[in-house]
């Protein structure tokens, strides 16, 4: 496991993190570790764009059929 050292954390940020950790009954280290895991698991914007580009975008229903259904529902 890697050890991270974070320098120059503003007091207000450190105080907020300490309060949140205490509220959850965790040490500051355990709380920050869990938050970093959440951040690391989140896909990057580039990954999201790549997933969207890889999606099959062929229509399963034609526009004409959709319009026909809308029109028939209005009657």
Q: H/E element string? A: HHHH
Helix content: 55-70%
The general outline is: elongated
State Rg.
24 Å
Q: Which structural class is indicated by helix and strand composition? A: mainly alpha
What average pLDDT do the residues reach?
Answer: 95
- Strand tally is 0
- Helix count equals 4
Q: How far apart are the first and last residues' alpha carbons, in Å?
A: 66 Å
Please state roughly what percent of the residues sit in beta strands, choosing from under 5%, 5-15%, 15-25%, 25-35%, 35-45% or over 45%.
under 5%
The domain count comes to: 1
The description of the largest β-sheet is: none
Stretches with pLDDT under 50, minimum 5 residues: none
